[in-house]
């Protein structure tokens, strides 16, 4: 029974770590996409 608890705890910890890293990557990706989108929109408007 203890083995299953250890496995469950390790998977929960790893999942939490991966989730926080993926969340940070998604936020940074959205910021970069927004910058490029508006920069390209301004270039099109100037033409």
Mean pLDDT value: 88
Q: How large, in whole angstroms, is the Cα Rg?
A: 20 Å
**Can you count the beta strands?**
0
Oligomer: single chain
Uncertain regions: pLDDT < 50 for 5+ in a row?
Answer: none
What's the overall geometry?
rod-shaped
Helix-residue proportion: over 70%
- Strand residue content: under 5%
Structural class: mainly alpha
| Number of helical elements | 1
**Would you list the SSEs in sequence order as H and E?**
H
Distance between the termini: 69 Å
Largest sheet: none
Structure explained in plain terms:
With 47 residues, this protein is an all-alpha fold. The chain has a domain at 23-47. It is 96% helix and 0% strand. It has one helix and no strands. It has one helix at residues 2-46. The longest helix has 45 residues, at 2-46. It is rod-shaped, with a radius of gyration of 20 Å. The chain starts with a helix and ends with a helix.
Features of the shown structure:
rod-shaped; 47 residues
Short description:
The chain has 47 residues and is mostly helical.
Strand and helix map with partners:
Elements: H1 2-46
């Amino acid at each position: 029974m203890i083995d299953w608890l250890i496995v469950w705890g390790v998977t929960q910890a790893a999942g939490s770590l991966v989730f926080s890293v993926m969340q940070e990557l998604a936020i940074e990706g959205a910021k970069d996409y927004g910058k490029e989108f508006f920069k390209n929109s301004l270039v099109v408007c100037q033409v």
